[in-house]
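Form 7-S
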Amino acid sequence: MKESTAKHRNPPKVVPTELAERLFTCEKCGSEQPIDWFAKQPRPAESIASNVSVGFWIPISFSNKCACAHLNHIVIERKDTLGRMVISADESFRQLDYIYMFLYAGCGIAGDKRAGIQSKINALEKRLARDSGGLLTSFHAKSIMSGKSWPKATRAMRLKYIRDMCKIANSKYVLRFVTTGSLYTTRATAKEMKLLRDRVFSAYTIRTLERCTNGGVAPTFAFDQAQNGSKNGWAEECMIGIRRSPLFIWFTRGAHIPAIEHVAPGSTIESKLADCLAFVTAREFDCRISGKNIDVDTQWYGYSQFSGFNSQADLIFNDGVGFPWRHVFGMKAKR
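Output:
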């Protein structure tokens, strides 16, 4: 197979504990070898539309080389796909005196429940337009909290809209994912910042893919467009790199995972919910680190799939209600 020349970014090598020690048996020499979950595959794992029937040809195996030099083909464990869901993500960044923090927050909504969630968001935005005198007509957390965008609003009024959107997100029909990463330094280089962003993107994508396909849901990943309305080229390059890893193929479980969607910020209800989650998580982090009054709470948006890199660069998984500040950042907190 001819190797792909598409520009891509190599994903950081982070493997879930349950897969780290998994072995394969060499087809030629019979020896057991550890699986290299980041052995670069010749091409990104992409579904190909079938020319003989409705559906797609989907990659269900990857290659690993044995110590004897034989190239083995390892077939993944498949699961039935019960439904599809768009998972829209938003990013947030905070820089304090000695720490840089970057996060991705993603939301997906059960297909037959979107209309109900849409109705609630429409009602919230109608109130927002009325209370702001038409200055704000669509939910965007940063604009709501900005004195420039809404100069006459009280702090309590602004926070009420943030909390009301969190209440909408706190639904059993909404899937919520948050992944964080950080650098402990007073001055990060551009290279370090790129690595941080790549690491969080990769961890968020693999974690979301794993949780979705394990539950029979095939996700479509959506990310905000660039500011000029073009595709998010960095996200494209990261995803191509991830798709070339056996880890991605393994967690597809044989499901069709389409190319990522590039959406205008705040143009979908999933992206509005993701914007709210990203803002609340980043603001609570900021308040806790700086010692300011904590005026938001990640518990507001309910049980979520949380993960984050700690100070030793270990990826911690800790799902629950409220971000696990104690487990990931060592903060004084219940979680």
